[in-house]
Amino acid sequence: MSESDDVKESTDRDARAEISDAAVRVAMLERQLEHAQKLCAIGELTGTTTHEFNNVLTTIINYAKMGLRHTDAETRNKAFEKILAAANRASKITSTILAVAKNRKNRHEPTDLVSLVEDTLLLLEREMNKYRITVEKVFQPIPEIRAEGNRIQQVLLNLLINARQAMPEGGRLAIKLSHDAETEMVDLVVRDYGSGIPKEKLPFIFDPYYSTKTGPDESGKGGTGLGLALCKRVVEEHRGRIRVESAVGKGTAFTLKLPIYKKSDAQEPGV
Ligand SMILES: Nc1ncnc2c1ncn2[C@@H]1O[C@H](COP(=O)(O)OP(=O)(O)O)[C@@H](O)[C@H]1O
Ligand SMILES: [Mg+2]
User: How far is the CA of 204 from the centre of ligand 2 (A)?
Assistant: First the structure.
């Protein structure tokens, strides 16, 4: 073997080592990103639910005080009804948090997207009221989808919070559900009538850490640039698709296509 062959062989070896180093680094960074996305989602959810819960407690306290102050049966009955309604709401909120904490069922299973959307809206009810966002629901009958409920809920939270943040002065937010029988997919559209996204920025919005926000807003949300990156990853893990349409000054629509649950999916646990 000539000296130059020797040199070539060692350069090849170096190059191979460098490539495998890079692969290890990419894998490590991907794990870190996933972890950061998870923490970010949990943080946002905790912030939201704590506020909601506090709000419910205030209602309970106020009606309990009212019931104590007034002895007539009519006022007391009304107070009890309000307390019961608020307590039921509180228990729904905690069960949602518990489901998330337990990571619901950590696998794809038949999932009712309508209740998932309703549960998520319940968590955001107070926040949407506070920012004067009117939520419009157009739900057509849809079959169950094949999904990991928790992860899809994270996607919904991210899209709804982004939509809310795009309308700082308040506005309309429309959520549509429909069934595309041809592709065997369920379509979910989250449309806001807010700021819109300039054309030149659209290619970047799904990149991790891409954000046009200066940091978290006063309710501790956004500014990490991880929201849509997570949405994209989760939707792709579900073999679905996510698409965006936007016009500056008019608003933005995110469309999710998620596969419906088929009997044959049962043979594929953990997909
Ligand atoms: N509904 C929306 N309306 C306008 N801009 C949006 C909307 N959703 C996302 N964006 C843009 O995409 C960027 C990335 O979103 P995201 O990944 O959720 O990160 P973050 O919300 O932390 O900034 C946002 O900073 C914003 O510029
Ligand atoms: Mg966001």
Answer: 13
